[in-house]
Design goal:
By secondary structure, the chain is an alpha+beta fold. It is 24% helix and 31% strand.
Amino acid sequence: MTGSYRCSIYGLGVVANSRIPGVTPSTIASEDIHISFGSLPAWLHEVSDTQIETSYIADYKSECGEPALRVFRVLDGEYYRFCYADDTEFVVDKAGTEVWAAWREPLTLADTATYLLGPVMGFVLLLRGVVCLHASAVAIGDEAIALLGPAGSGKSTTAAAFAERGYSILAEDVVTLDDRGDHFLVRPGYPCIRLWPAAVKALYGSESHLPKLTPNWDKCYLDLSDSFQREPLRLAAIYHLGERRGDAVAPLVQTLDRAEGLMSLVANTYATKLMDKHMRAREFELLTRVLNSLPVRRLTPHSDIGHIAELCTRIIADFKSGF
């Protein structure tokens, strides 16, 4: 691959034909994934319609009313094609070793990287046998906690607040459940957090405190170069961000019962809609073991984001209490 750029993402050695925005170059022990930016594989244009099967159509719509994402199985599942409403596309082989990416102007490589580092890599890891949570991960001592929840629940904002208090961040958006038999490891992701302007203003006093991620996105970029955990850590607890409250009780940390805990984990794994029955069975077995081996707690944040520091304090106190 000409002009190879080497880095590590979620514990995988990546070789790309261009620098990946937000990811620092590094020496890698193995070439696990090759990424080609700027074009899709040449053979794709020769594939007939009968060799393409729709695998997933997103329920949520883009601004123009189209499904935000369509995923297709190509050549009997030898490859998967991700087609986003903004014409960004990815092709991934079924082994999770080759990725191609293409986009149209005015979008850029930085825009494409936002998809790559989130849902696409979440799916690649699933293909490679690693189940991932839609979460952020923070290092507390020599262990990790995961901040779990759907989009907009405040995972990234809470992780950024922890970074401001001097804690290292392992991952944002994708948290691996690297199965080691008697425990699970969180692999380091990449050294940045993406924040909405409102979160930037709440944390730092001004929306302009952080640079824009790209000219085409509203999100901002928090550089974690000085507060990034570069080695994997054992996952010790999971905190699920739930419904916000505006009274004096919030922020609040509570125990989730077993049924709620399992539902929380199942609802917040990556690529759920793309799993075949074997993947789904393996995921359910693994999540059950996660639930049996570590606590899953409910977080009730305050509706006023100004209470985010207090939320971090409550989480730390709960974690250090030993439950």
